[in-house]
Design goal:
It contains 9 helices and 4 strands. 46% of the residues lie in helices and 12% in strands. It is α/β, with parallel strands linked by helices.
């Protein structure tokens, strides 16, 4: 069994879309329902039946970099060390056997910050509707006190421009609004293939 934990249901929907695109069919994907739950969920893994029966051959966790990729990696690393007594040294690199274990930081190309919504927006950045959305936020930044807008706000604004709009990343993934072949998804897709 190959097990992947991701932050939430929207992340799960995006990962499932990427897996369909990448023809990855043997991955069990479960949300840990927010980064605040990560340590608790990982700590409970060793008593799960699939772990006690040693059925898990590969295990990975996804986490958003948010504003600090290094801090997010440290959170991931600590959770794995405390819950499984395994030390991972760097993101995206598997260690150990039975199970192999790794963590992946979802970030912008620089690896320092970002989140799933950033990747999704990057995947549509060549479209006219993206450019209109960006102009909208540029205008807001010039005319209001707020200078930086959260990627979730930008993604919701972009989704509002779609025919069947729904503001959640997961529904955008499920309805086919995201181009899985985009290079923005390249690093995470390669990681999913390695699990």
């Amino acid at each position: 069994m190959k097990l992947l934990l991701c932050e939430g249901n929207d992340d799960k929907a995006v990962v499932e879309g990427l897996c369909r695109h990448g023809e990855i069919s043997d991955l069990v994907i479960e949300p840990y329902c927010g980064r605040g739950n990560l340590e608790r969920v990982v700590k409970a893994l060793p008593i799960r039946p699939e772990f006690t029966r040693k059925e898990v051959t590969s295990f990975a966790i996804l986490i958003d970099a948010e504003e600090d990729g290094e801090a997010s990696f440290q959170k991931l690393r600590n959770a794995i060390q405390q819950g499984l007594d395994i030390v991972i040294e760097q993101p995206g690199v598997f260690v150990g056997t039975a199970p192999r274990v790794a963590g992946f930081i979802i970030s912008e190309a620089d690896g320092k910050k970002g989140m799933l919504e950033d990747l999704c927006l990057e995947s549509v950045s060549d479209r006219a509707d993206y450019k209109c959305m960006q102009e909208y936020f540029d205008c807001l930044s010039k005319k209001t006190a707020t200078k930086n807008y959260h990627p979730k706000a930008k993604f919701k604004a972009w989704m509002a421009s779609q025919t069947e709009y729904d503001f959640r990343v997961g529904l955008a993934a499920g309805k086919g609004y995201l181009p899985w072949e985009s290079k923005a998804f390249g690093p995470i897709l390669e990681f999913l293939k390695s699990v």
